[in-house]
Amino acid sequence: PRKIYFSRHGESQFNVQGKIGGDSFLSPRGELYAAKLPGLISDNLGGKPLTVWTSTMNRTIQTAAGLPYPKMQWKALDELDSGLCDGMTYEEIEQKYPEDYANRDEDKFNYRYRGGESYRDVVLRLEPIIMELERHENILIVGHQAILRCIYAYFMNYDQDDLPYLKIPLHTVIEFTPKAYGCEEKRYKVDI
Ligand code: F6P
């Protein structure tokens, strides 16, 4: 049966600093994850073919660099654009834009960052990705938190209200085996 794997990029420098968005590279721990990922995938997949999809951002490209498979970069897989708030911590956003902060808390799926995107926007821009995923053989997506929440919710039938809160931890590979009804899921956590 075919497999779809998802992983967030390894821990980034912005993750360490608690900043959202940006285009930083990996932290030392993130680099360790990137180094362990090829072994985990090949143990799991055996010799079967795989295509790796990343976003166009440094942290996903760097995470996938050591994977010996054909790769494709998709702009549509870039992290949710946080507009004016890009590069800030949640505390800074709460201080500087308290109304925005409250509005997002009120309706996280529909809240659109000023000059940026909402989860609803991201779900729309991911449509072509989902179409391609349905047609392809084995795929590994090295992606971002908000993006993987949307894709995960599509396959696991979560609704809009739950989607922005789904737990997609760092340094974990999620494996989906599509079945006639729904998807079988396994998670592989990498200790670093
Ligand atoms: O903090 C990592 C990150 O991927 C940010 O770049 C992004 O804005 C955020 O997570 C998305 O999570 P949430 O929608 O919960 O703020």
Automatic annotation (TrEMBL):
Protein name per Swiss-Prot or TrEMBL: 6-phosphofructo-2-kinase-domain-containing protein
Full-length numbering of the shown residues: 203 to 394 of 501
